[in-house]
Structure formats: C-alpha cells, structure tokens
Write a structure and sequence with these properties.
Shape: elongated
Number of helices: 4
Number of strands: 10
Strand content: 25-35%
Number of domains: 2
Order of helices and strands: HEHEHEHEEEEEEE
Largest sheet: 4 strands, mixed
Radius of gyration: 22 Å
Length: 149
Amino acid sequence: MTRALIAVGAALVLLIGGLGLAVFVTRDEDNVAVDTPLSEDLTRAIALRDRVDLRRYARFDWDEVLIVARDTPRETVSRRLGYEWTGDVGFQTGELLIFLDGGRVARFADYRGLGRFEGFESPIDTLPRDEAVLRVSDLVVSPDRGSAR
C-alpha cells in the first residue's frame, strides 16, 4: 500500500512538473495586448466630441503617443520603436495609438470607428504628451498641435 501511494505521489509530481515545464516553454510573455477599455473610450470620444485630449483618457504614465496609420506593417512599427513590436490586436479596424513611457510601450489602443485620420505624418506620427490633443470634424481626426491646455 505504501509503495502504491509513493508511486502515485511521484507520478503526480512528474505530471505537474511536466505541465509547468510545458507552460514555461510555450509562454509568450513579450506580447502586449490591446487595451480594450481604452480603445472603446477613445473611439467613443472621437465619435462624440470635437476635441479629444488623450491625457483625459490615458490616465497612466506615458510621455508620447504614436499614431500609427491603418495597415502599417509590424516591421515599420518595430523600426520606429527600435525594438520588436509585439502588440497583439486580434483584429485591427483602424489606427493604433501606442502610448510610450521612456521609449517603452506603456499601453496601446486601436481605433474602432468610422473616422479618417488626416494631417498626421504617415505611417507613424508622434505627439508628445503635452500636445496629445485630437481635433474631430465630421469624423475627420487630425492633430490639434499647439492648442493643448
């Protein structure tokens, strides 16, 4: 009886260890997931307001935001960041807003509305935090440079 319990215990330890090893080996901890609540808040604000101050919605530490044009290749984003872009959107309907803190991705959102982004440098424009204001007119989104309050 004792030998059977030891054998079962050893088998359980090996199975749990194997499961832990499988999780460790197959993990992809470097991927950054889209901030869905932020994406929805920004999309809603762009639909309803004529001026969207990103600081009001992105209430976390960041010092600049990248406005990435729709369908920009990952390689282009990686070149701009200076390291591999591992953002995981799942599906992308529009522009990305990548919030950086000291050059590292703090969070990112994807625009999910029907508006058009115009007046931004293509494919990636940078807005410092103190100028991170968007102007919206008839669902045309443009930078409101110099008017941040």
